Amino acid sequence: MKKILTLIACIASITAIAQGQKWSKEKADQWYAEHQWITGANFIPSNAINQLEMWQEATFDTETIDRELGYAEGIGFNTMRVYLHSLAYKADKKGFKKRVDEYLKIANKHHIQTIFVIFDDCWNKDPKMGVQPEPKTGIHNSGWAQDPGYPASKDRANDKELEAYVKDVLTTFGKDERILLWDLYNEPGNNGKGNETLPLLKNVFKWAREANPQQPISAGLWKWDYQELNTFQAQNSDILTYHCYDTPEAHQRIINLLKTHNLPMICTEYMARTRNNNFANTLPMLKKEHIGAINWGLVNGKTNTIFAWDTPIDSGEEPNVWFHDVFRKDGTPYRKDETDLIKKLNTEK
């Protein structure tokens, strides 16, 4: 009987290792301590309107990626948050993974690690492969694509293909030190979906645990009245991630509340200048709190994120104050005082 119980215990232990478990606080703290202060931007090359245009073979542009990650390296950024897309994988699994590896080689050359985002509930609900739409004049993120889209995100008939995608990507790159973290679902419940997203959110965490990458997994808190989604995200993330485009005072209150989870934190989206959320008043606060800081975005381009979410400019002329982004396409900073501050904070001890 003793031998049988020992065998059962061993099998249970092996199963737990194979499937993965939520990290302990000690493991999370140790992981965070092994990294310098995590700073960077949400990145998409300026000549891509969305994730599909970034990752499809016909429009995957290593030259632009290399040049623009060079801008990031020049101001001391060490991390980029980058969105993948399941349709690009489905269309060309081998080629997609090859391009992901090529991206990682370029980022690594610039001393930049990557946070990859798996699913996303933001913006356009009907993604399609092939030639992507041109930007709509003066409109923020007019061509960004949800993943897997809607109603695809609530159709459980899609789960088999989505599970295969998640597990293949996380198994292929699950021990890759060029990857910092897996962000499993961006803003679950956005576009009015609410708790409709919860089943897929739960599934992607389950699939990720079964793939058992060595990197931590997370899904960022972003809408504070989504109680059920927030609870699941916070309780199942190895490292706590969140979004905040609020004023410094409101942001500090959010930080104080999130500290009660007693986990390392990364703010994976911030910086909206016209909402009084900018580098000067937010980045020093995040450094003081030892919270990772990933702003939106890096280079002004086809995503049109220099325009505010709810303030389109019909003429398409450059707004007086950019909403997001740090650089123009030629590498010139939008505001040199900002890039000077970013570089200073990234290089000082």
From TrEMBL:
Coiled coil: none annotated. This is Cellulase (Glycosyl hydrolase family 5). It comes from Pustulibacterium marinum. It comes from the Bacteria. Residues 133-153 are annotated as: Disordered. Keywords: Hydrolase, Signal. GO terms for molecular function: hydrolase activity. SUPFAM superfamilies: (Trans)glycosidases. Residues 1-18 form the signal peptide.
